[in-house]
Amino acid sequence: MTDDTSGFSSSGSPVRLDGPWTHRDVAANGARFHIAEMGDGPLVMLLHGFPQFWWTWRHQLTALADAGFRAVAMDLRGVGGSDRTPRGYDPANLALDITGVVRSLGEPDAALVGHDLGGYLAWTAAVMRPKLVRRLAVSSMPHPRRWRSAMLSDFAQSRAGSHIWGFQRPWLPERQLVADDAALVGRLLQEWSGPRPLEDEAVDVYRRAMCIPSTAHCSIEPYRWMVRSLARPDGLQFNRRMKRPVRVPTLHLHGSLDPAMRTRSAAGSGEYVEAPYRWRLFDGLGHFPHEEDPVAFSTELINWLKDPEPDR
Predict the structure, then answer these.
(1) 24 and 7 Cβ atoms separated by less than 8 Å
(2) Whole-model pTM above 0.90?
(3) 135: which strand partners?
(4) Beta strand pairing call for 110-115 and 43-47
C-alpha cells in the first residue's frame, strides 16, 4: 500500500490500484462485487459512471475518510473487479446490487453518491429501497423520468447523448470501445471534460480497465436496456415505479459545461423529491466535476453530508 492517492501504481492489476484504501470482494444479489474502502463512520457508498470504474472516486475516498465517514467505492456489475454476469443489467436489478452490498457490509443504511450511470442507479435505489438510503447525492445525471423525457423530446439532449443511441447496435460498439487500446474511451473522457481535462495518466487507467475481456459489453448493456425498454412493458413499468418520490435529503451536482448531460436536462429533477433538495452548479466544469475539481466537489459533498438539516 502507498499513501499516494493518485493511484497510478497498480501492482500488475488494472483495477486493484494501490492507495490508502483496502480492496476486497463482497457477495450480494447473486454476484460478487469488488469494493475499495477507507475510513470509519457512517457509510457513504460511491457509484461510478461510464466509461469508468471505482477509481474515479479516489479523491473522495480519502476526503470522506478524513472527514469521519466509511467511504466505499464499488465496481458496478460487469465492470472493474466485479462479476461479469450474462444478464441482470436493468436498473432495478443494478440498484438491488447496490443495496445488497450495503447489507453485505453490515450497515443499516448508506448515503449514496452516484455519478452518470451510478447517479441513475442511485435515484433508482432511493425509490426502490428507501429504508436503506439515508441520503442521496447525484452528479451529472437527472432523475430517470427526466432523463427519459429529455432523450425523447429534447433534440439537443438527444444529440448530446448520441453515444447512447449508438450503443443500440449489436457488437459494433463493443469493438469500437476496445479498438486501439480503448482509444475511444480516451476521446470520450477528454470531450466530456471541461477546461480542466483529466490527466493523461488517469485516462490511461480507464483505457486499460475497459480492455478487460467482456467489460465493454457489460458497460453498454445498461444503456441498451434504457433505450430498448422505452416502449416495452418492463420499461413502462419502471417509469411508473419511478413516479414514487424520493423522501431523503438530496444533493444534485452538475457541471455548467457538461456536454454529455445538459444542465436543462438535469435541472428540475427536484420535482421528484419530497425532502430537502439542494441544486449545486459548478461553473466551468464538465461531465466529471469530482475529478476535474475534486477539492470543490468533496467540500460541497462533505459539508452537505454533515449538515443535520440540509435546506432546500
Answers:
(1) no
(2) yes
(3) 111
(4) parallel
